[in-house]
Specification:
Helix content: 25-40%
Number of strands: 5
Structural class: alpha+beta
Oligomer: single chain
Shape: globular
Radius of gyration: 16 Å
Low-confidence stretches: 1-29
Largest sheet: 5 strands, mixed
Strand order of the largest sheet: 1-5-4-3-2
Number of helices: 4
Order of helices and strands: HHHEHEEEE
Mean pLDDT: 82
Length: 161
Amino acid sequence: MRFLAVAPFLGLIPSMLATPSPASYSPSSSLPAGPYCPPHHVNPSEQEAIFFDFIDKLYVQQNATDAYLTYVSPDYINHSPYAPQGRAAAISFLSFLIPSLNRTILHETFDNDVGLVHLKVDSKPLLALVDLFRLNGSCVVEHWDVNQALPANATNPIALF
């Protein structure tokens, strides 16, 4: 029953809602020249730099429009049951949501065309969120998210984080 009370709030949690810790991101000079979408071939280090710049624009600068128009495919596939399909819908949704949440990036990594961000969302209840993004060359093409609320009766003292 506790989940039912949280479910409407979870519907507002999209992908990538974070502000990284100060040491977790430094802008990369290895970014290839844009435009990034439609996708074109880039080497693995360029693809990683694209992912982290996308994360910086989205979460640190809180500019979903710039992040998505720069790095996300017009044919973007969103697997989140709480967010609408497509790049334009994601821009509208995230432009409202990201600035409204107090969040912290705990972990971020990129390997083999997939990047992930683990976030702590300071809310009632406390939430853990993981956003996964798949890139095709230079362009973000797909997204998944997984989230969990800290239950009031949690018995694990280090649950979620």
